[in-house]
Amino acid sequence: MRHLVLLLLLVSYSFANGQCTSTNTLITYYASNNGQRGAMFNITATNTVTINCFDASLYTGTTADYEIYYRTGTYVGSENNAGAWTLIGTTTGLTSAGANVGTPIPILVNVTIPAGQTYGFYITNTFGGGLSYTDGTAATNLLGSDANISINGGVGKSYPFGLTFSFREFNGAVHYTPGVPLPIELGGFWVNADDRKTELSWETYSELNNDYFTIEKSVNGSDFEFLAQVDAVGNSQKTEKYTFEDVALTSDVAYYRLSQTDLDGATTYFEVRAAKKIEDQPTSLHAVPNPTNGTTIITGSKDELGDLVISDVFGRTITDQIPSTVENNRVILDFSDFENSLFFVRVGDESITISTSR
Question: How far apart are CA 170 and CA 124, in angstroms?
Answer without folding.
Answer: 12
